[in-house]
Amino acid sequence: MTRRHAVVAGAGIGGLSAAVALHRRGWKVTVCERSVGPSAVGAGIVLAPNALRAFDAIGFDPVRATGHAAPAAMDLRRPGGRLLSRADSAALTARYGRPPLAVYRPTLAAALAAELPAGAIRYGTAVTAVDDADGEPLVHTATGALATGALTADLVIAADGIHSPIRSQYFPAHPGLHHSGETSWRTVIESGGPPVHAASETWGRGERFGIVPLADGRVYLYATAVVPEGYRPTDVRAELLRRYGTWHDPVPALLERIDPAAVLQHDLYDLAAPLPRFHQGRLAWLGDAAHAMTPNLGQGGCQAVEDAAVLAHLLDGAGVRAALAAYSAARWARTDALRVRSRRAGRVASLTHPLAVAARDLALRATPARAARRALDDLFAFGGFGLPEQGHTPSGDRAVP
User: Fold this and answer.
1) CATH classification of 179-270, choosing from 3.30.9.30, 3.90.1580.10, 3.40.50.620, 3.30.1330.40?
2) What is the pLDDT of residues 310-355, one digit of tens each?
3) Given phi > 0 = left and psi -120 to 50 = alpha, else beta, which region is 316?
4) Rounded CA Rg of the chain
5) pTM of this structure
6) d(CA 397, CA 336)
7) Computed from CA positions of residues 295, 41, 113, 166, in that sequence, does the dihedral angle turn out positive or negative?
8) What is the CATH number of domain 5-69+85-176+272-380?
9) Contacts of 389 (CB under 8 A, 6+ apart)
10) What is the mean pLDDT of residues 25-43?
């Protein structure tokens, strides 16, 4: 019997998760990645409980596979160090079965890639277009590992990122991306300095700084600032020290240890409006290609893993077209509610007016810890078949900007 063949455009966390899930269900998978090889630089990723349950559904254990995962319950502070709210790892574990875990993103990607057969990932092979007119998708690629420049498939998964060319091809009237008004810097510093024991995020006026210790002694750092789109400082270290160098310990000492060449800077975007659907014929969109959201809730990568688990489950024993229609129905409302919620959270976190910042901080300090944990239920809800767990349903906010 001929195995069904899936072509995945993009070897990010979502694309690799989908490839692993389908491979374990007997599919032949080909992953086309535009980069010439696995990324040697990267940042951390925090896997929330919903992403960990999605990995359970796929049959992949990120803790065992990477060997490095650290609890990442995150305190929220002011630049002077004053605590605004505390995330209790034990309470999160009691409520959701496990706390969020932090891993090094390239290590996680490598562990997922190792679950696939040799040759399944074709680096240096960008998917430029997908034709699905005759019911058998034809995937066109740029020059690279494919001698013919094209692949036939039973299923194509567009996991080609926030600037997805395949999304633009099939939804040309979509307004595209919306700039949040912020830029971000991310890096990982090597072990060797004073140990960092707790994750934290610090909110100032239009600026934020995050610290996430990884299990191997390295530390994932990230920062955001309200700046014009396209802003790029000539001296990254000086820029970060100017903005955050007087903040509470250990921020200044950590900034002194960064390698400017290893700092990634990206402006922050989300989709300006939801896609009409996440499928077309035998083509499905996944992760940022389907529902790009700002990182304010830490759910971008987590939702991509959920997508992969749901899609693979629905394809198990079902026709491709029917399964993809069910996938859109299962994923559209949840991911769009989180996209809108993440944008709103970013607006609150990036306030710049002193009175607005003071009111925000007072509200955070006044919120009971139990109420704050309840607010995470919608984020961390994930059932075994991809729908929110009973009693934990997203708000369904549909405010379209």
Assistant:
1) 3.30.9.30
2) 999 999 978 999 999 999 999 999 999 999 999 999 999 999 999 9
3) beta
4) 21
5) 0.92
6) 8
7) positive
8) 3.50.50.60
9) 381, 382, 383
10) 90
